[in-house]
Write a structure and sequence with these properties.
Strand content: over 45%
Radius of gyration: 26 Å
Helix content: under 10%
Number of strands: 12
Shape: globular
Structural class: mainly beta
CATH topology: Lipocalin
Strand order of the largest sheet: 1-4-5-7-8-9-11-12
Number of helices: 2
CATH superfamily: Lipid/polyisoprenoid-binding, YceI-like
Largest sheet: 8 strands, antiparallel, barrel
Length: 218
């Protein structure tokens, strides 16, 4: 009786996990940053940024909804172009960078939204974790730099209420209203480098049989 292996092979192929089609990308910190905008004195917007963003994305080329994203923002790198204000933002009134040095995001769901994506996940800031949804543009574009590195980029935007994360400091104005708005608009610009595949391990040299001694030959 001749046994065909074709059905077995087909079953193994169909059962192969999706990560066979996934590739890991690492955040290029030198070309990525997180920006924010908040209302000041009820009349204008103050904008700032965090210059150090790290993280990774695992992108499933076959099914983008199975992709994952993780990012970490260093709160000590906050910059609003005003040193005294930046010092206040690092204090316990706001980010409390000594106690909470990082803001983190970890995706829980990725959905298609036309040509773009909606990425749901957990945002942790000031010791509080809340679900947020990021609107992501441009994540499907890939290019190669002059040194042969594979690149992807994307812009993620969302809005949060800072009081939900325990950043409740404020000052009431004589004319009514408050000094700092509660709603914060966030924009994260990410540039990603495709992780290099590990080099194949070198084959171990063949072990030569030990030379026979006079005692062995007896």
């Amino acid at each position: 009786m001749k046994l065909s292996l074709k059905p077995v092979v087909a079953t193994l192929v169909l059962a192969a996990p999706s990560f066979a089609f996934a590739a890991e990308y690492v955040v290029d910190s030198g070309h990525s940053n997180a920006q924010f905008s908040v209302k000041h004195m009820m009349v204008s917007n103050v904008r700032g940024s965090f210059s150090k963003v790290t993280g990774k994305a695992v992108i499933d080329e076959k099914d983008i909804t199975k992709s994952t994203v993780e990012a970490t923002i260093d709160t000590a790198t906050v910059n609003t172009n005003e040193p005294k204000r930046d010092e206040h933002l690092r204090s316990a009134d706001f980010f409390d960078t000594a106690k909470y040095p990082n803001i983190t995001f970890k995706s829980t769901k990725v959905e298609k939204a036309g040509a773009n994506l909606k990425v749901s996940g957990d945002l942790t800031m000031h010791g509080v974790t809340k679900p947020v949804v990021l609107d992501v543009e441009g994540f499907n574009t890939e290019s190669k730099d002059p040194w042969g590195n594979i690149k992807r980029g994307g812009v993620a935007t969302t809005k949060i209420n800072r009081k939900d994360f325990g950043l409740g400091w404020n000052s009431v104005l004589e004319t009514g209203g408050v000094a700092v708005g509660e709603e914060v608009a966030i924009t994260i610009d990410l540039e990603l480098n495709k992780a290099q595949a590990p080099a194949p391990a070198a084959a171990a040299p063949a072990t030569k049989p030990a030379a026979k001694t006079a005692k062995d030959s007896k």
